Amino acid sequence: MNKYYVILLVLVLFLGLAFYEMTPQEKTIYVVSMTANEMSGALKNGTIDGFISWEPFPTKAAFDGYGKSLINSKDAWENHPSCSLALSEDIKDENTKIAIVWALVKGTRFINDPANREKVLGYGGEFSGLDRELVSLAINNTQYVEFPDIDQTKEGLKILYEAGALKNSMDSIGYKDVDDFLENFFIDKYYTEVRQRLDENPDWTPAAVNESIRFGYIDGNIHYLAIYVAQKEGYFEKTGLVPGKNIQFTGYRNGKAILDAFKHREVDAAELGTTVILKFKIDDNGRVAVISGVNTGGSSLVVRADSGIMTLGDLNGRRIATTGFGTCQDTIMRKMFEGFEIKTG
Predict the structure, then answer these.
(1) Which of 87, 133, 296, 333 shows its CA 20 to 30 Å from the CA of 94?
(2) Is the model's pTM score more than 0.85?
C-alpha cells in the first residue's frame, strides 16, 4: 500500500477517535414503577440501584443505614410541583371552601413557625408513627407552602407532555392554551382571601359552616402533616367542621386510590400529587380543581449507601424506581435526568 495512503488512514483514524472522545456520550437511565413501600426492599436486595420517593421514605432509608440521599428534589428543581389540595366540583358552598383553605393554611403556618418546632415534631411522630429524630429530618427536607408555584407547574406540564404522559391537548378539552387551563384549574381566590385576612389579623376566623366533608390523603406521607396539625390545633373545628362528625379523614395507599375515590364520588376533598391531579383533569375530565397548596421539595433520589454512586452520572446504565409514570416523583426524575435517555424496564 502506498505510504501516503497509510499516513492518510492513520490520520483519519486519529481524528475520528479524537472527535469521539470530545463528543458527549449519551447516558441512559432505566426506570421502573413501584410503591413507596416496595422501593425499600428492592434497594436492599439490589433489584434497583436507586429510587425517588416522598418523605419519610428517603430519610428512613438513610436513618436505617442502607441508603443515602443523593439529591433532594428542592435542590434539583426549585419550587417544583409536588402536592396540592383538590376539591370536588360538587362542593358548591363558598364558605366551605374558605373554611377548608383557612384550616390548612393555619396548619401550614403553624408548622413553619420556629416557635412551634417541638410541638410540630410531636405531631409529626403521632401522624407518621416514626422516631422523633427521623421526623425532624424528614420535615427539614420538606417545604410546606400555601399555594403552588404556577410557573413551575407549567414546566411540569411541559415535561408530562414531552414524556407522553398526557393524551389530550388543551384545545381538545376546551382551553385556548396551557395558560388558559392553569388559570381556570388553579383557583386562587379562596387562598387570596384567607391570606389577606390573616395578614391583617392573625386571629381572624371565617364563618362557621354546616357541611359534610370526606377528606382524603396518602397514609404516612409527611407532606400532609398540616392536615393533622389543623385537627390537633382545632382549626377545622373552629370553622364548624368537627373531625369524626361532619368531616371524615381517610388515608389512602397512593394518589391513584384517591383518584378512584374521586371518580366514584367517595371523597369531596383530598391532598395528593399535583401532576396526578393534572392528568386526572386533562385525560379523564376529572371534576376537581386545585384551591390551595401543600408542599414543594420533600422527595429525594436515594441510592445504596455502599454503592459508590456519588453523582447522577454514576447512575448511567442503572435502574431506579419512581412511584409511577406521570406522578410527581416521575416528573421530578425527568427533570433531574435531563440529557439522559430514559427507558422503562
Answers:
(1) 296
(2) yes
